[in-house]
Amino acid sequence: MTVAFADTGIEVSEVPDARGLLFLDAIAKLDPLGIPDAAPGGIDGITLECLIQESRDTRRFVAWSPGPEKEPRQHGFVVALLNLAMDVTREPETVRRLEQVFGYVRAGLPA
Fold first, then answer.
1. Start-to-end CA span in the chain (Å)
2. Count of other CB atoms within 10 angstroms of residue 62
3. Which pTM value belongs to this model?
C-alpha cells in the first residue's frame, strides 16, 4: 500500500494477506466499480480522488468529505481504505495526516 499526501513524503507499507482480504470483503458489498462521483464541494472539506483497479475494470471517482448519510458508498470505501492505511502505516507524520482525514469524513478513529 502506498500512502501519499501532496505536501509530504510517500510511505509504502506491506499489507498482510489476511488484512487485505478484510479490506476486499468490506468494499465488495459497496459495488466499488459503480461508486458515483460526488457533487462539488463546499466551504470546509476535503476532496479525495479515489482509484479502484480490479482485474476486469478500473474506476476513478471524486469524493468531497463523504458522509455516511448522503454518500454511503463513497464513505464506506474511504473509511475502509483509511482503516487499512492506519493498520499498516508506521511513520508518525503519515498517521497524523490520516487521523486528520478521518475528521473530514466524519468517521471515528480506529481503536
1. 20
2. 16
3. 0.87
DSSP string, 33-50: GGPPPPPP--SS--EEEE
Can you tell me the distance from the alpha carbon of 33 to that of 59, in angstroms, rounded to the nearest whole number?
5
d(CA 51, CA 31): 13
* pLDDT by residue, tens only, the chain of 111 residues: 788 777 777 888 899 999 999 999 999 999 999 999 887 777 888 888 888 888 888 989 999 999 899 899 999 999 999 999 999 998 898 899 899 898 888 887 776
Determine contact, residues 88/15, Cβ cutoff 8 Å. Answer: yes
Q: For the stretch 16-40, what's the b/e string if a residue is b when 16 or more beta carbons lie within 10 angstroms of its beta carbon?
A: eeeeeeebeebbeebebeebeebee
Q: Retrieve residue 18's grid coordinates.
A: 489476511
